[in-house]
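Lab meeting minutes (informal)
Scribe: AK
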Amino acid sequence: MNTTSALNTAGTRPLQFPIPANVYAETVVSVKHYTDRLFSFRITRPQSLRF
C-alpha cells in the first residue's frame, strides 16, 4: 500500500475548542506495511523538535 491521497478539508468546520500549547498537527508522508498489523510511517516535524 504505497498510495497517498490528499484530505478534502474544504467542507470542514473549524475546531470548537482551544488547542493546548506544544501540540502540533503533522502530515503523514509515507506508510510502509509489513503485515496487516505491523507497519511504519514517516511524518513531517517542526524544526524545533530535536532528538
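Next up, CB showed the second protein from the same session:
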Amino acid sequence: MSELASARVRHPFVELTRTRVLLLVREPEMIFWVFVFPILMALALGLAFDRPGEAAAAPGYRYVDWLIPGLLGMNIMGTGIWGIGFQIVTQRSRKLLKRMMATPMQRAHYLGSFVVARLVLLALEVAALVGVAWLIFDIPIEGSLVTLALVALVGAMAFGGIGLLTAARPRTIEGVSGIMNVVMAPMWIASGVFFAASNFPDPLQPFIQAMPLTALVDALRGVMLHGDGLRTIGFELLILLAWTSGSFVLALRLFRWR
C-alpha cells in the first residue's frame, strides 16, 4: 500500500498526534526546555548542595537524592502546562483554530492529540534526566522502573489536562501566561520540590496535599528512594487521575475555537 493510501486510512486522532510529534521534534526551543534545561538545573543545584560532609553518606540520604524526583516532577508539570497551553493559544491568536471550525475534526481529537504527543516524548524526557542524575550523582532507583514510568505517565496526563484547561479560553499569549503562572506558582513553592511540603502550617496541608505536583513528587520519591510499589502510592495516583479526568472534561466543555 502506498504512503498516500495508508495516510487515508489513518484515524484522524492518529494523524493529528503524528503531526504534533513532528512539530515538537522540529522545534529547537522545545528540545532545549524539555531535555537540556532540566539537566542543567539538576547539575547546578546538585553541585551547589553537594556538601563535603555528605560525601560518605549512602545514596538516598543526600539532598541531591531528594531533589532529583522533585525536579523531575516540576519538569513534567512545565512541559505539560507550558508546552500544551502555549501551542493552543498561539494557534488561536493566529486564527488557525477558526479555520479548523470548518473541518469535521472533533474537539476531543484535537485536544487529546496534544496530550498524547507529549506522552510520546515523555520516555526520553524522563530517561534523560534520571540517566544523567544516576551517572553523575549516583542517584538511587530503589523501586521498579516500570512503576516509575507509570507514575511519570499518569503525572504527564494530569498536567496535560491542566494545560488544556488553561488554554481553553485565552486569546493571547499574555493572557494564558498569567493564568499559567497563577496555576503553577503555588505548586512551585508548596509542593515539596526544593524543601518539604510539611514545613507549611497544618491548616494549609489539605490544600497542599491535593495539589497534583505534590502527589506526583511524593510518588516519584517513594518509588526512587524507598522502593514503593503501586499499592503504597495508590492515593497519590488517585489524586493525579482525578486531576486528569476533571481537567480534561472541563477543557472539553470550556474550549472555544475563536
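CB comment: The chain has one domain: 10-254.
No objections, moving on.
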